[in-house]
Design a protein that fits this description.
With 199 residues, this protein is of the alpha+beta class. 33% of the residues lie in helices and 12% in strands.
């Protein structure tokens, strides 16, 4: 699990606390709006995700990453093995606000809202700022909760639990698998890098 601290991002926060998200179902390399927007956007923190549709689920913008709740953005590269068998447990754990925030039907968005539920239960929903240690602790609890449910239900499918969460100040990333046969999916992180446009 990786984490960037508040000290690394201090003084570079935009005035807006809510992230701006662009999603699309067309390939990133072929999306004219993405190209036009990216020519005019700069940020101290960017999440990028190219998504492969979950098996059996429709491709639509509601299922595209990153997901947003308040000032939090979340991405997942991987899958929750046997998700259909534990989905009801995830939903039962959510409070009404988080349950109503669910828009899509992916395992990823469900994991995000479970993460938020765990973070708020442990540290308080009324808070606006969380330490990187608190964000990391909530990530560990979420992964252990999911793996516990999977084991409890006797699911044999591997789960690749590569998650990334940010509150705009800190970033916490996991690369986890509950299988000794399958390694976690790829996940890339760059810090202090700049991407310059070629004109």
């Amino acid at each position: 699990m990786a984490a960037a601290t508040r000290e690394e991002t201090k003084g570079r926060i935009n005035e807006a606390k809510t992230p701006c998200i662009f999603t699309g179902i067309t390939p990133a390399w072929n999306n004219m709006n993405l190209h036009r927007i990216s020519e005019n956007v700069s940020s101290h923190l960017i999440f990028g995700h190219v998504r492969a549709a979950s098996p059996g689920y429709p491709t639509n913008e509601a299922n595209c990453h990153p997901f947003l709740y308040k000032n939090f953005m979340f991405m997942h590269n991987g899958c929750v093995g046997g998700f259909s068998r534990i989905r009801r447990k995830v939903l039962a754990r959510l409070n009404d606000k988080l349950f109503l925030a669910l828009v899509g039907n992916t395992d990823s968005e469900h994991c995000f809202l479970l993460y938020m539920q765990i973070l708020f239960e442990k540290y308080g929903e009324e808070r606006e700022d969380f330490t990187v240690t608190e964000l990391r602790t909530a990530m560990n609890i979420m992964i252990n909760t999911i793996c516990g449910w999977i084991k409890e239900d006797g699911v044999k499918d591997a789960s690749l639990l590569n998650f990334a969460i940010t509150d705009g100040m800190s970033v916490v990333v996991s690369r986890s698998s509950n299988s000794s046969q399958k390694e976690g999916c790829s996940m890339y992180y760059a810090s202090g890098a700049s991407f310059d446009r070629i004109k």
